[in-house]
Amino acid sequence: MVRELTAEEVASILDTAEDTLELAFVHADECAKDTETLHEDALEYEDTRIRDPEYIFQPPRKGDDLEETDVSGLGSPGLVFDDALNAPEKWLKENEQRIKDKFQKAKE
After folding, report:
1. 75 close to 65: Cβ distance less than 8 angstroms
2. Radius of gyration from C-alpha coordinates of the chain
3. End-to-end alpha-carbon separation of the chain, Å?
4. Max Cα separation, the chain?
């Protein structure tokens, strides 16, 4: 035995172990993501990186009032245009019913 640990050293070891465990859980969550989620995360990161925070049309976040950034019932311009250009089939599939409803109301 070299020497006894002080109470401060023991507390430090416990804090480090707790921090490491927390990081392990975060790492496990990141590693468990599928390719679609990774792609969505990359698109969100890129959008956040290049979009000016002062720009009025921001993509909606959880809990946001969608009316504030909505343009003609299609959502935020950057988000809509990015999705439609990157994955038009996916965008159409997600928005098909809303588009049909909009045109049905316009006919009435």
Report:
1. no
2. 23
3. 87
4. 87
